[in-house]
């Protein structure tokens, strides 16, 4: 199972008048977390797009337990529980600098061929980088 | 059952390099939809906050069927399926100007007393405005 | 001289922990104001882009006098002081619902041909719609 | 003269349909740059707010030379040209990973006492940390 961690600091722009990190910002944070997870595997999402793939989000769910505050340094733990096929599933846990779990989320994305705009298998390089993490599962 | 509709136009700032309305913007759109739904009832969320209530989001789920594009005029249909207690549940459907259903979502929020920061019953005025829509259910 | 007005309500997402509308949101508001100004002239910026023009911003200046707050209904007064050539200049004044001037800003944009990515003259339709507002100046 | 550098990677959420980093995001980037500049001095903006100071922006100017693109790793060079008094002036230069200058900007902020909401002198600690960088100028 592939796991990755990324740190994101809450910007002033991302706070709201309640003093919380606005609940809508996590979608952006998880996008950053996904991209950095791929980068950790040696994969560039930017290059994937340049090579003709896009990965729109099909589904997003999040449960908020505690708010994050301005300047908090969040750790987002990203997991890809299964080897992806046309669809790829990610789960996320957000912790603050005290180690408190702030929220848990999941997203489903789909690999799409930019030319046909139809679902497609993930790039070979993508699967090859992930396979070692799922050996025991196969 | 209380239903409300609000129109939101996709801003340039809200598009992404795929040409889509970025998937994370809907959380903001639904917040606008909630506030306008309340305004349609004669309730001001701003005033509610001034009077000591805040309504953080506990849970958010969304399924994306089709993207919205720049300058699309979206219609968001907001429903409060049940008379709220400490928690209030909203469902949303987003349509584009051709009437195509783009996504469906739901949020759970909680009424919180700003002084104690503990869950609380909704303001009386809030419930009184909503009750007529749920008479048959009672 | 062409003038236009648009109303924009401050969203919760756009507030910050100071309780203000975050200073960076005005760039987005002015983009909306520009697009609505063009729409008022019978011009669609979306259609212009589809037809091969883009209008990146070259310069942006803003002076903040007073903050806007959550749920404020702002009026943005947009002016095109001169008939545009390759560059187009806009000025903006933002007022709140009490008529208080909150800020003044200006932007310079350039018409760019999407294929060559080089500066170009504005579309004929664009100039034709604007000319009547500058007759005396010619 | 105090100078500082911070790296910021362009998020997918921050791109627009032109494929550029949206022009309005730089206000947020410069806020991050300011806060990290202060952190580099051993100062926490968060703590300053907790201790009763806020620093609203009075003026913001930016000239855009070249766009940034998705996943670009930008370097923002922040300078405080003069020892601040009630007002503090920052200048910024944004470079991409190829060292190309993308834009130049400046902001004026004011120290405000949170209780009175009136302009005030900067906190002593703030000035003490900065003084060594301006010795020759005095």
Fold and architecture overview:
The structure is a homotetramer of 138-residue chains. Chain A has one domain (2-137): Hotdog Thioesterase (Thiol Ester Dehydrase, Chain A, Roll), CATH 3.10.129. Chain A starts with a strand and ends in an 8-residue tail after the last helix. Chain A has a 5-stranded antiparallel beta sheet, covered by helices on one side. In chain A, strands 2-7-8 form a 3-stranded antiparallel beta sheet. With 138 residues, chain A is α+β, with helices and mostly antiparallel strands. Chain A is built from 3 helices and 8 strands. Chain A is globular, with a radius of gyration of 16 Å. β3 of chain A pairs antiparallel with β3 of chain B.
Task: Summarize, please.
Four copies of one chain form a homotetramer. Chain A is 20% helix and 36% strand.
